[in-house]
Design goal:
Blueprint (H helix, E strand, L loop, with lengths): L4 E2 L4 E8 L5 E6 L5 E6 L4 E5 L5 E5 L6 E6 L6 E5 L3 E5 L7 E5 L5 E6 L5 E6 L4 E5 L4 E6 L6 E6 L5 E6 L3 E6 L5 E6 L5 E6 L5 E6 L3 E6 L4 E7 L4 E6 L5 E6 L4 E5 L4 E6 L6 E6 L5 E6 L3 E7 L4
Parallel strand pairs: 1-26
Antiparallel strand pairs: 2-29, 3-4, 4-5, 5-6, 7-8, 8-9, 9-10, 11-12, 12-13, 13-14, 15-16, 16-17, 17-18, 19-20, 20-21, 21-22, 23-24, 24-25, 25-26, 27-28, 28-29
Length: 305
C-alpha cells in the first residue's frame, strides 16, 4: 500500500453543491449541524440548509471578495469578513439581516469567534490583529507583532489564547486577555496560510505555502510533526474528537493524516483545480471542501473508528 492512497471507502461524497459564481474562500458548519455556510470571491456568503433538502440562501452585503465566514459557537450568528475592510454580522435565517462595521484599513483575511460568542478576532493586510465586542461592535484591543499580511487567526477552546499566522513566516501565540505575544514560531520554507488548534489547545496545525503541514507543541515551544502533503497547502483542520488532520491544496487534493501513526492515510479527489478550504462539522461526522471550481462538497467521515 502506498503512503497515501486514493480511497473512497473512507470518505463518501454526500453533496456536490454549486451556487457561487466565483471560487469558494471559506466554510463553516453551525454547531447543531443543520446548516453550513460558505464564502466566495463573488462577494456573497451562502447558507446551506441541510435539513430542508439542501435549500440555499445567498446573502448580499459585501462589496468585495469575502475571505472568511464563521458561525458563533452558540449558533445564533454568522460573521464574515471581506477585502472591503468590513466585518458583517448576519442572522442565519432566510431574510439574512446583517449589520457591519469597518474593522481595518485594508483587506481583512480572517476572523474567529471567542468560545463564549461575545468577541470576534480579526486579522488583515494591515498586519494587525484586532479584538471586538460582537454586541456593541466595539474595538477592544490590538495584537501587534506581525510585519506582513495576517492570514489566519483562531481562539483556543478555553478562550485564553489566540493563535495567528502571517506572510512574515511566523506563527504567533497570544494571551487573549493581555494582548501580549507569548511565543513566536518561525517557519523557514514558505509562509503559513492557515492555523488550526487541536481540542487539547496545545497542538497547532499550520498549513504552509510550501506544501507541508506542520504541527507545533505550544507548551514545549517546538515543532512536533512535519508532513509534506501538497504543492501548496491552503487549509488544514483538526478532527474535533479524534487525532486526525485534514488538509487541502492547490493541487486539488484533500489529504487525511493520522497524527498518532504519524503518516498521511488517504488522498481524496473531487474538485477541478485548487481546493481553498476544508472544515469538519462540529460532531466530526462530515467535512466540507470549497474550491476554485466554485463547488462546495460535503463528505461523510468514514475513517474514524
Amino acid at each position: 500500500m502506498s503512503q497515501t492512497e486514493l480511497c473512497e471507502d473512507y470518505s463518501v461524497l454526500k453533496l456536490n453543491l454549486k451556487g457561487h459564481k466565483k471560487p469558494v474562500t471559506g466554510l463553516c458548519f453551525d454547531p447543531d449541524g443543520k446548516q453550513f455556510a460558505s464564502s466566495s470571491e463573488d462577494h456573497t456568503i451562502m447558507i446551506w440548509n441541510s435539513a430542508q433538502n439542501i435549500r440555499s440562501y445567498s446573502f448580499l452585503g459585501h462589496s468585495d471578495i469575502v475571505t472568511a465566514v464563521e458561525y458563533s459557537p452558540n449558533g445564533k450568528l454568522v460573521a464574515s469578513c471581506s477585502q472591503d475592510q468590513t466585518v458583517r454580522i448576519w442572522v442565519p435565517t432566510v431574510k439574512g439581516v446583517s449589520t457591519d462595521f469597518r474593522a481595518h484599513t485594508s483587506a481583512i483575511r480572517t476572523l474567529a469567534f471567542s468560545p463564549d460568542s461575545n468577541k470576534i478576532v480579526t486579522g488583515a493586510n494591515d498586519k494587525s490583529i484586532k479584538l471586538w465586542n460582537v454586541a456593541r461592535k466595539q474595538f477592544l484591543t490590538s495584537f501587534v507583532g506581525h510585519n506582513n499580511w495576517v492570514r489566519s487567526v483562531k481562539f483556543s477552546h478555553d478562550g485564553s489564547t489566540i493563535v495567528s499566522c502571517s506572510d512574515d513566516q511566523t506563527v504567533r501565540v497570544w494571551d487573549a486577555t493581555s494582548g501580549q505575544s507569548v511565543h513566536v514560531f518561525k517557519t523557514s520554507k514558505g509562509s503559513p496560510t492557515c492555523v488550526s488548534l487541536h481540542k487539547n489547545d496545545n497542538s497547532v496545525a499550520v498549513a504552509m505555502s510550501s506544501g507541508s503541514v506542520r504541527v507545533y507543541d505550544v507548551r514545549m515551544k517546538k515543532l512536533q510533526q512535519h508532513y509534506v502533503l501538497h504543492d501548496n497547502t491552503t487549509s488544514t483542520c483538526w478532527h474535533p474528537h479524534a487525532n486526525f488532520l485534514l488538509s487541502s491544496g492547490k493541487d486539488g487534493k484533500l489529504i487525511v493524516v493520522d497524527v498518532m501513526e504519524g503518516r498521511p492515510l488517504y488522498t481524496i479527489g473531487g474538485h477541478e483545480g485548487a481546493v481553498n478550504c476544508v472544515r469538519f462539522s462540529q460532531d466530526g461526522e462530515y467535512f466540507a471542501s470549497g474550491g476554485s471550481d466554485r463547488h462546495v462538497m460535503v463528505w461523510k467521515t468514514n475513517f474514524v473508528k
